[in-house]
Structure formats: C-alpha cells, structure tokens
Design goal:
Length: 143
Amino acid sequence: MIVSAILKVKGREVETAPSTATLMQIADTLAKRRIGAVVVVDDDRRVAGIVSERDIIRVLAKSGPQVLSSPASSVMTRNVISCGETDTLDQLMNAMTTGRFRHLPVTKDGVLVGIVSIGDVVKYHLSEVQMEASAMKAYIAQT
Ligand code: AMP
C-alpha cells in the first residue's frame, strides 16, 4: 500500500494554519475537528511547521494559559519530515517510529497535498496483515 492509495480513501483535506494563528485558535481547531495536529503553511501552501497537541500541552505546562495568545511560530516544529505519494506503509511506519511523531504531511513538488496519521497507518497495516492471513489460509486449505 502506498500513500496515494490511502489518500484516495481518506481524502486530501488537511487542517492548516498560518504561522500567525494563535495557539488558542489552533487548540480550538484541534478540539472541533477531533485531530491531533495542524500543519502550518505559508501563502504558497508550503509546509512551514507543525503544531501538535503535545506542543500545546508542553508550553501550557511551562508558561501557563497566557501562552495561548502566542503565535504558532513560537512553538511549531520547523524541521518537518514529510512523505511523498509513492512512499510505502513500511516507510511511513519507519519515519514515525524513528522520529517519534504521529503525523506525516504529504507533499508534492514541495506543496502540501494531504496528511497521514498514525491512526491511518495502523488501520491500513492491519488490513494488509488480515489480507495476507486470509490468502495464507486459502492457500493452506487448497494444498
Ligand atoms: P505528534 O506525535 O504528532 O503529536 O508530535 C510529537 C512532536 O513531534 C511534536 O513536537 C510535533 O510538533 C512533532 N512532529 C509531529 N509531526 C512531525 C513531523 N512530521 N516532522 C517533524 N516533527 C513532527
């Protein structure tokens, strides 16, 4: 399974924010959309950073609720690892495990075209494992 097949099923919509959005606005988006991260993009829809719920919790604990009026640029991770549409499920799992994060923006020619979360990866990995198990059972039953 490759990223483009995942996006075909889940869609290409991504919650984004400009780097000037406040952490309160981002927290509001995370809560309303029931998601774990927002991708920060520039005017050309290029990835400038990512803010996950963990980033917000970390600064809240450190600086208190007044930090919620700070801009996304003050806490976002700038060195974002992205994936491409032809990357495989195994490559995504490796990137998430190595980088210890749960979100991978998908880019094409540098532009944001989707996002894959660890929930998507687990879902499609499970269905691959189940398909392999069924094929194996059918093969064994034949012989
Ligand atoms: P997450 O597990 O996605 O909630 O993110 C955990 C930490 O990794 C947070 O500090 C995020 O800003 C950061 N992060 C999330 N996704 C990525 C990514 N694709 N590349 C780099 N850092 C990321």
